Known about the structure:
Elements (H helix, E strand, L loop, with lengths): L1 E2 L5 H21 L7 H7 L7 E5 L2 H7 L3 H12 L4 E5 L9 H4 L6 E3 L6 H6 L13 E5 L3 E5 L8 H6 L1
Parallel strand pairs: 1-2, 2-3
Antiparallel strand pairs: 4-5, 5-6
Amino acid sequence: MFITSGVSSKNYNKCVKLIKEELIRRKKLFSDYGGEYKNYIQNSKEKLPVYTVILNNYDSIYDSNPNIYEELPDLIRDSERYGVVFVITANAINSVQTKIVQNCPNVYTLKLKDNTEYSSAFGKSVKTSPRNMKGRGFVNVNGIHEFQTASIVSENLNEFISN
């Protein structure tokens, strides 16, 4: 599921309702497997996809749907164990409220405006920044590591996806 800026409150509410319904369905489905997606996949003969919910440009989504702040922390906290994963993109490190961020186990940053923002992102004193190359960033997986992303197209990504 892909939720991006400009989504109407009506459509946003429909998406949240679908996510909640899926979580309820999976809770019931996993009840004989310790209530966990991993146990269900390992011990049942059924296959069930991991759902990924992408909140692209959180800043804009929050501006048009401020109730996201009340709903999202509980959804994120409970979702991973049921095979529903959230990906949140934002324009600034402080755009996503602490109540939401504390439920996100993985944080990736691309080049930030100020080196001091890396300490906010990772809760550690990071005194450096990624090398000055498009697509460079940091991730905290068993320590702070630098990574490189790549684009799948050299031109207009939105047009490529539409095609």
